[in-house]
């Protein structure tokens, strides 16, 4: 009886021990899963923060690009007005000074058209640059540099003169033939309108370039 009693207690203790083990194992598994759940939660927040950071970066980069373009647009606008004002200021006497270069082109109506393409191609290369920002900037500086010595040279006359020098070096002696001055003056501006009216160089009213506002003013003043 004693043996059976002890054997029964041994079996009870054995089962109780296993029950405790199972209980602890169950809690261990629960803790393990809870730990993974917390990890996943933090990982999810880390991913959210990472994306939010990139979203903020993209937002700022977009604004930086906008500001950059806006700055160039404002610059081009002012540069364009600076060039216009500069030409308008010299409308009375620059028109006469232009006659030398213009007469040269008018005299060579067939090849002056090609000579204009040299200067125009240079400006056309910058056409996409914030609505001629580069063109206006260079025209303004070319004006400043050449008016210091001779206030009668407009920026376009300077470029046209150099184009003529490059392409008609042997024909430079025709520069005194001024009877086509007005037509050539308009023809140059017509070529500047991206060649929209380049083939109508002798018909100045076809010119569509907005810059003709200054050209018509020059003609009126003349």
TrEMBL record:
What top-level branch of life does the organism fall under?
Answer: Eukaryota
Q: Where is the composition biased (Basic and acidic residues)?
A: 9-68, 81-132, 141-153, 162-222
Composition bias (Basic residues) maps to 69-80
Per its UniProt record, what InterPro entries does this chain match?
Plasmodium_HRP (IPR008779)
Q: Where is this region: Disordered?
A: 1-222
* Record's protein name: Histidine-rich protein II
């Amino acid at each position: 009886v004693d043996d059976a009693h002890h054997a029964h207690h041994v079996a009870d203790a054995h089962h109780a021990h296993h029950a405790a083990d199972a209980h602890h194992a169950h809690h261990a598994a629960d803790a393990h899963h809870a730990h993974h759940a917390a990890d996943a939660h933090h990982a999810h927040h880390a991913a959210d923060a990472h994306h939010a950071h990139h979203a903020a970066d993209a937002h700022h980069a977009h604004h930086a690009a906008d500001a950059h373009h806006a700055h160039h647009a404002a610059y081009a606008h002012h540069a364009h007005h600076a060039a216009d004002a500069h030409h308008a200021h010299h409308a009375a006497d620059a028109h006469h000074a232009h006659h030398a270069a213009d007469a040269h082109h008018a005299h060579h109506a067939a090849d002056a058209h090609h000579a204009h393409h040299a200067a125009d191609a240079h400006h056309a290369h910058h056409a996409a640059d914030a609505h001629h920002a580069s063109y206006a900037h260079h025209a303004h500086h070319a004006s400043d540099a050449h008016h210091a010595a001779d206030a009668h040279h407009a920026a376009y006359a300077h470029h046209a003169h150099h184009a003529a020098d490059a392409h008609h070096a042997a024909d430079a002696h025709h520069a005194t033939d001024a009877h086509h001055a007005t037509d050539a003056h308009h023809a140059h501006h017509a070529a500047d309108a991206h060649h929209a009216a380049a083939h109508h160089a002798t018909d100045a009213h076809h010119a569509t370039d907005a810059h003709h506002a200054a050209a018509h003013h020059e003609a009126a003043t003349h």
